[in-house]
Amino acid sequence: MKDLLRTQDLSRADVELLLDTAADFAKNPLRSNTALANKTVAIYMTKPSTRTRLSSESAVAHLGGTPIFIRGDELQLGRGETIADTARIISGYCSALIIRTFAQSDVDELGANASIPVINALTDDDHPTQLLADWLTIREQFGKDISGRKFVYLGDGNNMSHSWLIMGAIMGAHVVAATPTGAWAPDPDVVKIAQEIAKNSGGKVEVLHEAESAAKDASVLYTDVWMSMGDSESEREEKVLALSPFAVTENLMSLTQKDSVFMHCLPAHRGEEVEASVIDGTKSVIWREAFHRRTTIQSLLYHLINGDLQGSKH
């Protein structure tokens, strides 16, 4: 496995290896501080970023490498140079490429033409690096035995909902996406892929359209902002109205298991998708989750560059 372009690229064994190493990096960040010695990693972002940029740059530095941050307007891509040519050029200078952009097809094309590992650090379709951080946080909370537990995402059926269902299926978990019907439901093709993966992993994938039944007896309630980058402001009123029943409230959390936690990929809008008392409360693990963006990207870089990941058949 050369690249991580989509969550579904990972096998269960890959995820377990990545999480084991990331847990080690959490305890000892400099454990492998010569892995990227005298090497560079390009970090190309056409979307603004806090966690992904900081975690990526610090992950490279902890491995002994030098991160090269590139904004969307700083390459000749903006003047018509092709993605394929750009991939080949970056491959000649750097040992890996981390990209955060809009179109999944751009990331796929970079992966196809680069000779170095390409890591999808968010597209409009998928967010695999976030899900690695999420699952390391879940493992810290509940251990490796997740039988009988339910993991619920509530809100917009966006890239986060897609990644949540796919990764949960890979891990053999019972995962739920509770969303409105119609325009803000998850992509049916992604749901189908998640369900196919779950058949082999022993997992269970559900898409529901009612928050209370989804939250009942859940171990995790997870949400994301309602208006993502690139969303049309003209849709805001309609979208907020549709998503309001899926806000994570104290009442919703009261329906969950006693040891349940609240998770959010951040940034958060308190008073919209989550009540302030929930995200700032005792069940919230958002800061640990954000911390693990670095440990998991560090692990991902380490294992991709060493050629340790096998990939999945999906």
- The CATH homologous superfamily name of the largest domain equals Aspartate/ornithine carbamoyltransferase
- Rg over alpha carbons: 19 Å
- Provide the succession of SSEs: HEHEHEHEHEHEHEHEHHEHH
* Number of structurally distinct domains: 2
Supply the helix-strand structural class: alpha/beta
Q: What is the end-to-end distance?
A: 13 Å
CATH topology of the largest domain: Rossmann fold
Residue stretches low in confidence (pLDDT < 50, at least 5 long) are none
Count up the helices: 12
Strand order of the biggest β-sheet: 7-6-5-8-9
Q: What number is the mean pLDDT?
A: 96
Give the name of the CATH architecture of the largest domain.
3-Layer(aba) Sandwich
The CATH class of the largest domain is identified as Alpha Beta
User: Overall 3D geometry?
Assistant: globular
Helix fraction bin: 40-55%
* Estimated share of beta-strand residues: 5-15%
Largest sheet: 5 strands, parallel
Keywords: Transferase
GO molecular function: amino acid binding; ornithine carbamoyltransferase activity
Domain Aspartate/ornithine carbamoyltransferase carbamoyl-P binding: 2-140
GO biological process, one term: citrulline biosynthetic process
